[in-house]
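Good day; I would like, with your permission, to put a structural problem before you. The record follows directly beneath this note:
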Amino acid sequence: HRDLHSFPTRRSSDLYVGTVDGDMVIFEHGKTKKIIAKVGMEESVESTPVFANGVLYINTRSKLYAIVNGK
C-alpha cells in the first residue's frame, strides 16, 4: 500500500495515480488490478494528475511536468 496525495484520474480505460513515494502508476481499469506502467518521478507526486488538450500534467514536490505523447 502506498500513501496518496491525489485522486486517481481516468483517461480512456486507464487510471493514473501519483504516490508519496514518487511514482506515477498507471492501471488498466477493470475488476482486477493490472499495472500497465510505473514511472519514477524522483519525488512525491503532490496533486491529482490532469489531462488537458492532449497533455498530461503531473505536479511533484518541486516540479510541474507536461507530458505529450509519452515524452
Observations:
- The longest strand covers residues 34-40.
- The mean pLDDT is 88.
